[in-house]
C-alpha cells in the first residue's frame, strides 16, 4: 500500500503535505517559523488530531532550536511561550495539547542537561511521538479488523487515514489492513461539508490504495442506510470525554442517530491520546466555530447571499449511548464507558 507522510521534520524545517490543495495538487510546505506552523494548523493545511499533535511536537522542537538562551530558566520561559502559542491554534483536538504536554514533560525531565543537548532531546521526543503514533494506528487497525467480515460495506465521515496520522490512520486503519490481506471491503465516504474532507481527502486516499470507495453527499447517508447498503459506520474523533461522549467532525452525531435507527453498528476509532479523562462529559468539550466564509464561499465561490447569518461549528458531540464500541490500541471497549475507559489507563 502507498504510504504518504503528511508531517516530517529535518531539524531545520517542518515539511507538511498541504491538505487544502488535495485532490488536485500534491504540494509540500516547508515550515521554518512558528507563525507559519500556527497558520498551517488553523487553516487545516495539516489536519487530523494525531497529525496535529505530531506537527505541534515538531513545532516546539523547531521553536526551541531557534532560541538563543543559554540558561535553563530563561530557556524554559521562552519555550512555554512557544507552546502556549501553538496551543491556541485549535481548541477541540485534544492530541494537540497531549503532544505539547508530553514535550514539556520531556523538557522538565532533562532540566539538568546542557541547552544544546535539550534541543536534540526535544527533537528526538517529537520523532518518538510520530513513531508511537504509527504503531498505535497499526494496533487500532488490528483490533478494528476483528469487527469486519469479507464483503462488508462501511460508511465513514471526514478523513481519518494516513494523511491525518503517522500511518494507516484511525478509522481507515482496519480498512487498509483488510485490503493488504486480500479482503473485499467497500466504503461509502461522506463528502463532509463544508470543507469536503471526505471528497477531497478520503476518496483520494482510498483510491490511491485501490480501495473500492463511493463518494456521497452528507445528506445521502440516510438513504444508503435505508436501502441496506451499509453494514457498519466507522469514524475517528477529536476528543472523547470520560463518559464516552465523542467530539468529531460536524455531521458525525447525525450519522450516529441514523445508524441507531437502522440497527447499524456505529464504531469510533481512537488512540488513547484522544481520550480526555479530565473532561467528564461531552457538554464540557470546547467546540471550535470557524469562519462564515467556509459556508458562504465554499472553496472560494460565493454560494449564499451577502450578509446572511451563519453558524459554523467545526465539530459536534455524539452521546455515548449511540456508540456501539470504541476501538483503541489497547482493545475494543463497549458501554458502560465511564467504567471501561478507566481500565485503559491502568
Automatic annotation (TrEMBL):
Source domain of life: Bacteria
EC top class, as a word: isomerase
Pathway: Amino-acid biosynthesis; L-methionine biosynthesis via salvage pathway; L-methionine from S-methyl-5-thio-alpha-D-ribose 1-phosphate: step 1/6
Active site (record annotation): 238
Gene3D superfamilies: translation initiation factor eif-2b, domain 1 (1.20.120.420), Translation initiation factor eif-2b, domain 2 (3.40.50.10470)
Primary role: Catalyzes the interconversion of methylthioribose-1-phosphate (MTR-1-P) into methylthioribulose-1-phosphate (MTRu-1-P).
Family: Belongs to the EIF-2B alpha/beta/delta subunits family. MtnA subfamily.
UniProt protein name: Methylthioribose-1-phosphate isomerase
Annotated source species: Paenibacillus segetis
Encoding gene per record: mtnA1
Amino acid at each position: 500500500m502507498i504510504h504518504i507522510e503528511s508531517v516530517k521534520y529535518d531539524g531545520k524545517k517542518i515539511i507538511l503535505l498541504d491538505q487544502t490543495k488535495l485532490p488536485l495538487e500534491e504540494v509540500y510546505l516547508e515550515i521554518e517559523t512558528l507563525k507559519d506552523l500556527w497558520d498551517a494548523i488553523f487553516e487545516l493545511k495539516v489536519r487530523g488530531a494525531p497529525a496535529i499533535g505530531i506537527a505541534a511536537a515538531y513545532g516546539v522542537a523547531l521553536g526551541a532550536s531557534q532560541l538563543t538562551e543559554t540558561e535553563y530558566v530563561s530557556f524554559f520561559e521562552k519555550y512555554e511561550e512557544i507552546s502556549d502559542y501553538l496551543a491556541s491554534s485549535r481548541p477541540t483536538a485534544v492530541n494537540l495539547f497531549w503532544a505539547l504536554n508530553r514535550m514539556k514533560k520531556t523538557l522538565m525531565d532533562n532540566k539538568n542537561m546542557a541547552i544544546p543537548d535539550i534541543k536534540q532531546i526535544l527533537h528526538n521526543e517529537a520523532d518518538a511521538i510520530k513513531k508511537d503514533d504509527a504503531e498505535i494506528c497499526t494496533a487500532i487497525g488490528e483490533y478494528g479488523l476483528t469487527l469486519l467480515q469479507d464483503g462488508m460495506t462501511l460508511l465513514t465521515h471526514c478523513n481519518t487515514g494516513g494523511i491525518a496520522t503517522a500511518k494507516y490512520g484511525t478509522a481507515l486503519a482496519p480498512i487498509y489492513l483488510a485490503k493488504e490481506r486480500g479482503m473485499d471491503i467497500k466504503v461509502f465516504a461522506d463528502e463532509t461539508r463544508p470543507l469536503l474532507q471526505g471528497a477531497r481527502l478520503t476518496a483520494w486516499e482510498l483510491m490511491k490504495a485501490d480501495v473500492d470507495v463511493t463518494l456521497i453527499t452528507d445528506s445521502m447517508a440516510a438513504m444508503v442506510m435505508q436501502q441496506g447498503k451499509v453494514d457498519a459506520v466507522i469514524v475517528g474523533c477529536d476528543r472523547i470525554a470520560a463518559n464516552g461522549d465523542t467530539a468529531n467532525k460536524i455531521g458525525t452525531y447525525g450519522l450516529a442517530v441514523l445508524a441507531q435507527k437502522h440497527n447499524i453498528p456505529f464504531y469510533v476509532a481512537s488512540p488513547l491520546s484522544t481520550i480526555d479523562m479530565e473532561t467528564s462529559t461531552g457538554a464540557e468539550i470546547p467546540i471550535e466555530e470557524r469562519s462564515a466564509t467556509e459556508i458562504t464561499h465554499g472553496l472560494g465561490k460565493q454560494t449564499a447571499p451577502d450578509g446572511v447569518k451563519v453558524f459554523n461549528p467545526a465539530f459536534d458531540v455524539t452521546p455515548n449511548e449511540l456508540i456501539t464500541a470504541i476501538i483503541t490500541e489497547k482493545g475494543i471497549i463497549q458501554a458502560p464507558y465511564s467504567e471501561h475507559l478507566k481500565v485503559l489507563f491502568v
